[in-house]
Write a structure and sequence with these properties.
This protein is an alpha/beta fold. It is built from six helices and twelve strands.
């Protein structure tokens, strides 16, 4: 793993000739991701992120923390006991340099030392589930990391709008094999590319079915166009 996302975060923080990231999926063309966006403050976050941070309470685990902007807000503005987690060593290094007191560089599936009142998975938090075939593994792990009265705040986007519609009947033309939200995701930075990773976008009803199957209650908190924020709690 080249950790290109982490390298971009590192370069931006240290002012070492940072460039914008580029991302591409199996159903979309190359898109720019300004690295400075990963360092935005609360006012620069969208309504879904802001609502999730407002709802966060108690001991918080921020999974996929990146440059740490969500964790930093909770720690410094809300005095929260927050742990920033990411698999990217360079991202976690920057989180530490930005002043985040608790960090973990680890895959969430391998983490088992603590439980939490709030678990955050933001910026398409369902992406780390990879596919419908592995979603149960991740939800079971999240269940084990959650206090009995805790909450998981997770967002995603129903990407059905990205597919063409049949001009005659208005139906959506989607691949015959697999779920349409299962994509290959590639990151590019400074002329290099990562190997494609599996990335999962979920419509709310599909997440609801999976969550309930794995012992959660689920409610939709915010809907913004095709994106939403959901809260999962233990039944």
């Amino acid at each position: 793993m080249k950790d290109l996302m982490g390298q971009a975060i590192h370069d931006y923080y240290h002012n070492e000739n940072p460039e914008d990231l580029q991302t591409e999926t199996s159903i979309s063309e190359l898109d720019e991701l300004p690295v400075e966006y990963l360092f935005r403050d609360f006012t620069g976050m969208n309504a879904i992120e802001q609502k999730a941070l407002e709802l966060a309470h108690g001991k918080v685990l921020d999974i996929g923390a990146g440059a740490g902007s969500h964790s930093l807000y909770l720690q410094d503005e809300r005095n929260a006991d927050v742990t920033a987690m990411d698999i990217s060593p360079k991202s976690i290094e920057v989180c530490q340099l930005r002043g985040i007191k608790k960090t973990v560089c680890e895959n969430m599936l391998h983490f088992s030392r603590e439980t939490f009142d709030t678990i955050l998975l933001l910026m398409n938090g369902t992406g780390i589930f990879q596919s419908l075939s592995t979603i149960d593994t991740y939800l079971k792990k999240l269940y084990s990391l959650l206090h009995e009265n805790g909450q998981i705040l997770i967002d995603s986007t129903d990407i059905l709008y990205m597919f063409d519609r049949d001009e005659e009947d208005g139906g959506v033309l989607i691949p015959a094999n697999g779920y349409y939200g299962e994509l290959d995701y590639v990151v590019y930075y400074k002329g290099e590319s990562e190997d494609p990773i599996r990335w999962l976008y979920l419509d709310f009803n599909t997440l609801k079915n999976a969550a309930e199957y794995n012992g959660f209650r689920i409610e939709k908190i915010v809907q913004e166009d095709d994106s939403y924020l959901a809260r999962l709690t233990k039944r």
